[in-house]
User: What shape does this take?
Amino acid sequence: MLRVGVICGLQSEANILATFAGRREAPEIMISGARPSMAVRASDELAASGVSGLVSFGVAGGVDPSLRPGDIIVGTEVLAPDGRRFSTDRQWHEYMASAIGKVAPVREGRIVGSDTVVAAAGKWKLFEDTGAACVDMESQAVAAAASAAGLPFAVLRAVADPASVDIPEWISRSVRADGGIDLAKALGAAVIRPLDWRRLCRLAIGSRKARLNLGGAVGILGPGFGLFAR
Assistant: This one.
């Protein structure tokens, strides 16, 4: 049976795909917990499981300063931290962009992979160096696994934090291995860093917009993310 494997960093991203639960063609989902090493293992495991293609899916940090919270990005290429470049499947990403674009604004662009949360200054530098649209912590693992297995892959992301917004460096440490948020740890960190509250509020608002728009995109593409319609 044809099926797609999806890597998400967070449980909240995987929850967007819950509408397909129980369906025969539902995507196979694995969560990395915002840990690059887990993203590598999960991507390799999915690639070896017999899926027909891989998708990196979820929220991302805007690198292009013209992008705003909620903007949808369909990846054309992934730049890994070690300098490797991986092109997404051309027919697949073109189909995704076309299908979503008939209903909502969408941008095709380059994705930069990172092993850490990237601050605003780092995003601006990435844009100057690469012209990328956004940055995330899973796409490089998905791209490498797909390339090694000879599988097509795609990237579907939505901007949570634009290029001008700094994300607290401790935020990734508040993500549990299952992709949920350790609220006690997050609140504890925020209490001793009160200046981070404003940034957290902006991130929460941007993440909500991103998840809503990703849900709309998934509704358009269906459980196969358009792979079998390309």
The first helix runs from residue 11 to 15. The first strand starts at residue 4 and ends at 8. The mean pLDDT is 90. The chain is about 40% helix and 20% strand.
